[in-house]
Design goal:
- It is a single chain.
- By secondary structure, this protein is of the alpha/beta class.
- Strands 7-6-8-9-5-10 form a six-stranded parallel sheet. It has a five-stranded parallel sheet with strand order 11-20-19-12-18, sandwiched between helices.
- α8 (about 160-170) crosses α16 and α24 packs across α25 (about 635-640).
- The chain is globular and about 80 Å long.
- It starts with 6 loop residues before the first helix and ends with a helix.
């Protein structure tokens, strides 16, 4: 039996929850969820506290609450000072002392279903020492079961034929390292129903997949009937995926010539789509048109920027994928995880750098790709490890930006600072590529924005009234491309170093300089980011566009979006959920690339300021990177903190 609640003590608990909520330390939803648990039946204090913490962690991207963490250091779990945690827990006595004690307390509660017991449909699920909201437990178990099934399935492969094709497809490439991991990835992806290809920027993930597509067409019994779909979490990432693959496939078509009608075969693939569009998202609903009862009509599905795919979306995707189809996930496991709950790609290939291949995989790669996996990587592993390949050589990031990214990813604060400070001694070219303003003020960011955005704003002045059709579209495309050459990225939303503060300050400075003419919220040249999916206008969360005059309707404004080389537009008055986007969060920048990227770190960022955020910001830059740090030590603090999201997915997949 659980101890009954002492009314006086529980009032202390609710009062402290309210105080922390008003102070911004807790979400209002977290307190409301704990009260909801109390309304469902007898609720001992530990249940209410666990429900509060679970809801709070869900808002921070965790899919579950590890009871061992709750027992060992609950204050750190919530990011609260020790004294505030003690005051919060003062109304819950006695608290369980360890994970076993928490399990015992929660297992007897009416609101909790313990896996293996009779299921009453309770809202909370206790699985071993993990506490879940039911929908996240359902999603994790679905993803785990689908991944296990796909990773363990093997297809018959004609190794000599595959090797011959790989030699042709990679003929012009000399591997900078041995083995040729790109060639190896193609061979491994061909033999299963699931493959993961991970690697940092410039390692050639889409280059590899283009050759995988050619290999699939070349070895398929009926290549003309292959149904291949390309997808990504955002519209921009989808457009970039299609553009990169089309370019690589055109080059390959010249090489294979008459041996494979590659242009004809790939013409049937169609455009890359967002995952929402692919699955058939329904307005105002979490449900999709495609699911297990109405699966996707595909033979091969390639998903880029998989690190951005949250747990619920991955569950929906796997549920809708027919068992006969092959899934290929592309992404950088070291980037920021999705904004919503889960870190699926990170969980699935957390140990990809170790290889963990078995002897059978090594033998297969030797036969099918002519490559020898180094012995250090042949140390045995699970089924998913045999279908996971990490690309290890960056062809784009060999300079100082790449050195900085590697140092940050390794958690080496001293090495990162040394790369940043060595810029002056490494020559003019390097100095131009990498800058660090250590004691930055907001004016530094505003000055960079003034110069970075001047090219597209100047081009706005060259617009010709009355010009429509192709000439106007070419001009719009040029404006959008210039705008995409520069961006300021922020770690936080609020404050002078956040998105809101910088956007306001930049907008004011551009107006003072005569580069924009504001006449309300909407004006020519205003960059906007869509903040909510809108199926009526076919714009999606994260899409970025520019506000320009409508040539067909004098006095009207349209927002133009660039998708690859294509331009589309929507009347500004039809866009209800947008925000100004001279500056944007690092999270929203994933899937994008800018010639010059400025990363502005705040004076203090708390748990959000972590190594993955800095790494992701750095790797958005293709030619130039500028780091702004307003106070000493903030860079070291960020690099020293790793993002950890509680999850049971890794264990479920490996069991």
């Amino acid at each position: 039996m659980n101890n009954p609640i002492d009314p006086d003590k529980i009032d202390v608990f609710w009062s402290e929850v309210e105080r922390l909520t008003e102070a911004g330390e807790l979400r209002r939803l977290s307190g409301a969820f704990a009260r909801f648990m109390a309304s469902l039946g007898p609720a001992p204090g530990p249940l209410l506290l666990a429900a509060l913490v679970l809801s709070e962690l869900e808002g921070r991207g965790h899919s579950c609450l590890l009871l061992s963490d709750l027992a060992e250091d609950a204050a750190a779990l919530l990011g609260l000072p020790e004294e505030e945690w003690k005051e919060l827990a003062a109304g819950i006595k006695p608290l369980p002392k360890n994970a076993k004690g928490w399990i015992a307390q929660l297992a007897g509660c009416e609101q909790v279903w313990q896996v293996g017991e009779f299921d009453y449909g309770q809202p909370l699920v206790l699985d071993d020492s993990r506490l879940y909201l039911r929908r996240y437990w359902r999603d994790e178990t679905l993803v785990a079961s689908c991944v296990r099934a796909r990773a363990g399935e093997r297809q018959a492969v004609d190794a000599p034929a595959v090797r011959a094709w790989l030699e042709l497809l990679f003929a012009s490439q000399r591997a900078a390292d041995k083995p040729d991991w790109q060639k190896l990835a193609c061979a491994i992806a061909l033999r299963g129903k699931m493959a993961i290809i991970t690697g940092g920027p410039g390692t050639g993930k889409t280059y590899t997949v283009a050759r995988l597509l050619a290999l699939l067409f070349a070895t398929a019994p009926d290549a003309a009937r292959q149904r291949i779909a390309l997808a990504a979490p955002t519209g921009k990432a989808a457009a970039r995926l299609k553009q990169s693959i089309d370019k690589a496939l055109n080059e390959l078509a010249e090489r294979v010539g008459e041996q494979l009608p590659l242009r004809e075969l790939t013409a049937r693939m169609g455009a890359a789509r967002t995952l929402h569009s692919l699955l058939g998202a329904r307005p105002d609903s979490r449900a999709f048109a495609h699911h297990r009862g109405n699966p996707l009509d595909v033979d091969v599905l390639i998903v880029d920027e998989a690190s951005m795919v949250h747990l619920e979306m991955m569950a929906s995707l796997l549920d809708a994928l027919p068992p006969t189809a092959t899934l290929v996930l592309l992404g950088d496991k070291d980037q920021l995880a999705s904004v919503e709950a889960g870190a699926v790609l990170g969980d699935l290939c957390h140990d990809a750098q170790a290889g963990n291949y078995d002897e059978a995989t090594a033998a297969y790669v030797r036969d099918a790709a002519g490559e020898e996996i180094p012995p250090a990587y042949v140390c045995g592993g699970g089924a998913l490890a045999q279908q996971t390949v990490m690309l290890r050589h960056s062809r784009r990031f060999g300079g100082p930006i790449g050195q900085l990214a590697l140092a940050v990813n390794a958690g080496d604060v001293d090495a990162a600072a040394a790369v940043l400070r060595a810029r002056g001694a490494l020559g003019v070219e390097v100095a131009h590529a990498l800058r660090w303003i250590e004691h930055a003020q907001q004016q530094h960011a505003i000055g960079l924005a003034l110069e970075g955005y001047r090219p597209y704003l100047r081009l706005l002045g060259e617009a010709q009234d009355g010009v429509e059709g192709g000439a106007h579209e070419d001009w719009v495309r040029a404006v959008l491309q210039r705008f995409e050459g520069f961006r300021i990225l922020c770690a936080v939303r609020e404050g002078e170093w956040g998105v809101e503060g910088l956007n306001t300050a930049i907008e004011q400075r551009l107006g003072d300089a005569g580069l924009i003419r504001r006449s309300g919220d909407w004006y020519v040249g205003r960059p906007v980011m869509v903040t909510r999916n809108d199926y009526a206008t076919n714009v999606f969360n994260g899409d970025i566009g520019l506000t320009l005059a409508d040539p067909a309707r004098p006095g009207s404004l349209r927002v133009y979006f660039l998708e690859g080389d294509k331009v589309r537009s929507v009347l500004a008055t039809r866009l209800r959920h947008v925000e100004t986007a001279y500056a944007m969060t690092v999270h929203k920048s994933q899937g994008s690339e800018f010639a010059h990227t400025v990363l502005a770190l705040p004076k203090e960022g708390g748990a959000v300021l972590a190594r993955e955020l800095v790494y992701t910001g750095i790797t958005r830059a293709s030619r130039e990177f500028t780091l702004l740090t307003p106070v000493p030590g903030v860079l070291g603090e960020a690099i020293g903190r790793r993002t950890h999201r509680a999850s049971g997915l890794r264990g479920m997949v490996e069991k």
